[in-house]
Amino acid sequence: VELLRDLFGLQKQLRLRAEATETLRVLMRVSPDPAWSRELAAMCMEQGQSDDAIVMLQRALAENPQDPSPHQALARLYQQKNMPEKAIESLRALVQIDPNDLESHLALGQLYHQLGRIDDQIESLAHAIELGASDPRLFLELGDLYRQRGKTEDAQAMLQQAKQAAPDDPTVSKRLIDIFLCANDHAAAIGELEAMRQQDPENIENYLTLARIYHGQSMFDEAMQVLEQALTVAPGQIQVRIEQAKLLIEANRAADAVD
């Protein structure tokens, strides 16, 4: 066994892959070990022998079902071979072994999404959160799914949790603003935008979005004030001037709009 191990190591070092593979097969017969099955599977994958790799990984799992590595490799192989249902089986096994495996939860959700199994995707992500996962990506994805289903309150609850997990993430704030606007909660949207302005006072887009919300609520003075503040930050911003002109035209102040 020791000689075979040394021979395998030397062949691998010299990149004699075919020879190393054969030595490893002999080693597995002489000294069965899940580690050799995983090693052989990796070598098969390197040589494009995906079917042989799957057999080796399944053998490794039979010897140690709680080892996450074969499940991870099988999930990748099944996805490469366009076998999503098999990949789902491997990913489900992974999250049972390690409920905190965020990437597996997300990958499982994406596979469900690709198959149009949105309810299963929602259930999978919700289950990850129930198990204690707190990554904002989970809350964001689940919030988007709830929003697509018209469950505005549930979507808002998920995004609020994302906000708690990542208070300075502008992506979370933008999604929250969208939800608030869909729910006609303009006061909440304005409050979120004001917070974003304080966090990033040089981001002109925040001023423009806030002004447009004020404009939509017929709050002319507030919209103009926000645009004036934007000009103090970026005096040459053409889009701010255009927004001002639009407001002035609607206020029947054509001369000011021309200026």
What is this structure's SSE topology?
Layout: H1 2-13, H2 17-30, H3 34-46, H4 50-63, H5 68-80, H6 84-97, H7 102-114, H8 118-130, H9 136-148, H10 152-165, H11 170-182, H12 186-199, H13 204-216, H14 220-233, H15 238-250, H16 254-258
Helix pairs in contact: 1-2, 2-3, 3-4, 4-5, 5-6, 6-7, 7-8, 8-9, 9-10, 10-11, 11-12, 12-13, 13-14, 13-15, 14-15
Task: Please give a handful of descriptors for the protein shown.
elongated; mainly alpha; 79% helix
Describe what you observe in this structure.
- With about 260 residues, this protein is an all-alpha fold.
- Helices cover about 80% and strands about 0% of the residues.
- The protein is built from 16 helices and no strands.
- The protein has helices spanning about 1-15, 15-30, 35-45, 50-65, 70-80, 85-95, 100-115, 120-130, 135-150, 150-165, 170-180, 185-200, 205-215, 220-235, 240-250, 255-259.
- Helix 3 (about 35-45) runs antiparallel to helix 4 (about 50-65).
- The N and C termini lie far apart (about 90 Å).
- The relative contact order is 0.04.
